[in-house]
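Predict structure. Chain length: 243.
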Amino acid sequence: MKLKRALVTGASSGIGEATVRALSASGREVLAVARRHDRLEVLAEATGARTLAADVRDISILDAVADFSPDILVNNAGVGHGMDGLLGLDQEVYEESVAINVLGPVRITAATIPGMKARGRGHVVNVGSIAGLHTSISALYGATKAAIHIFSQNLRYELAGTGLRVTEICPGRVTSEIYSAARGDRRRLDAMYESGIRELDPEDIAAAIIYAVDAPEHVNISTIELLPTDQTVGGIAMRPSGT
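Prediction complete.
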């Protein structure tokens, strides 16, 4: 059975925008949620998607989210604060990171899965990161994405027997606005942004999401890790103390 109604957060640019376009092109009804109303208007005109200009931290949107009754939920909204390291960040940055990257997806998922269970069909797609799976300098950002990883794994366990599916998409470097919008050491963030490697395109991630949601009903794509050919992870760092 093809799932027909999709809700996408963080939909005004990057992965979220590409996912709205891909889901709309596949013939699905889409509700695009993001903070930037002007960009949502452009996206709606291009795709026919419905829009909701809202912040995922605002619990007042949960009724509207539940009323839409999505078969597919794509938890994509996120911030890259602390991607370059923990030190030097303000307390408000920690709180914003956790509120958007962790509490937002948890709340919206909790608001939508009762309807999915009642209908006997549904698919939760969480956009994580390789930073949540592998060791890197991003202690804060990585911690929020690691939370999404275990949230996805445990939610899948919790929903066993309901027919609902859970997928986590873990991208590496993607061409998007996340680096320019992140809070941290500007020089290091700009260096990451200007690395010169051939990054993934947002459309690459959207294609992975379509692959997961269009899998046969008896197939649950649990975790997809995507990296640019020019990027890898792993290794051991050894540095003398005081360097």
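Summary: Residues 153 and 222 are 8 Å apart (CA to CA).
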